[in-house]
Specification:
This protein has helices at residues 14-23, 81-102, 119-134, 159-167, 169-177, 183-195, 206-211, and strands at 3-7, 27-32, 45-48, 66-69, 105-109, 139-142, 146-148, 180-182, 201-204, 226-227. It is of the alpha/beta class and 228 residues long. An eight-stranded mixed β-sheet has the order 3-2-1-4-5-6-9-10, with helices on both faces. It has a two-stranded parallel ribbon with strand order 7-8. α3 (119-134) links the parallel β5 and β6 (139-142).
Length: 228
């Protein structure tokens, strides 16, 4: 049984992840602002703090052995560059500092790159990835491009385009690296990251995130990942 601390646990991905972790017998605590305790999924414990400020919660991460950082701007787009720098960057760096102080395995959701768009988003997530390496943390970095789910369905129209690009040698690598993943696939990949902590920095790209869907819940398969 893992003891997991989640930031962003009341959001799009966080609520689904917490429910799955609890169903698998793990203990979960979720960071929330004062007054939002009721938003934490039933069965998880609420911890009051500010995700943008490590000092507000770093000493509360222990006894968790894993910190999952999910705080970020909803529905990312190129127009939200200032929000990425104001929210995604400080929350990511705070999670790095809190994990370092608690000596906890960090699970961080980054973004697939390089890519021909979303430059500010990629820049911010890459800065956090570098901070993870500089801190010499045991960490799993997941790099989805777009996570399909409720309210996040418009890219379905691109699936035929992706299929064609995956068949062409010159575009296959990019199509796979920048491919679409579903919310259930992403949640399963996060669960695998929690249950199989990395000793160094492990980077999980889109093909490996997709492969998580085929893993039996007994956890008998070894996660395919690239160690950076």
């Amino acid at each position: 049984m893992a003891n997991v601390f989640v930031t962003g646990g009341t959001g799009y991905m966080g609520r689904r992840l917490i429910g799955e972790l609890l169903a698998r017998g793990h203990k979960v605590r979720a960071l929330v602002r004062a007054g939002s305790e009721s938003k934490v999924p039933s069965g998880a414990d609420a911890v009051i703090g500010d995700a943008l400020d490590a000092a507000s919660y770093a000493d509360r991460v222990v006894p968790s052995d894993t910190l999952v950082q999910l705080v970020g701007v909803a529905h990312p787009s190129p127009a939200k560059a200032a929000e990425f720098r104001a929210i995604d960057l400080p929350s990511g760096l705070a999670a790095v500092e809190a994990s370092k102080q608690a000596r906890a395995h960090l699970v961080y959701v980054s973004v697939a790159h390089p890519a021909p768009m979303m430059n500010a988003y990629i820049e911010v997530r890459s800065q956090v990835e570098q901070a993870i390496r500089d801190a010499r943390l045991g960490a799993t970095v997941l790099r989805p491009w777009y996570v399909l789910g409720k309210g996040h369905r418009w890219p379905y129209v691109l699936i035929p385009f992706y299929k064609v690009c995956e068949l062409i040698p010159s575009t296959r690598e990019g199509a796979l690296r920048l491919g679409l993943v579903t919310l259930p696939q992403m949640v399963r990949a996060l669960v695998r990251a929690v249950e199989s902590p990395a000793s160094g920095v492990r980077v999980v790209e889109v093909p490996e995130i997709r492969s998580a869907a085929s893993v039996h819940h007994g956890g008998t398969e070894t996660q395919k990942a690239r160690t950076a």
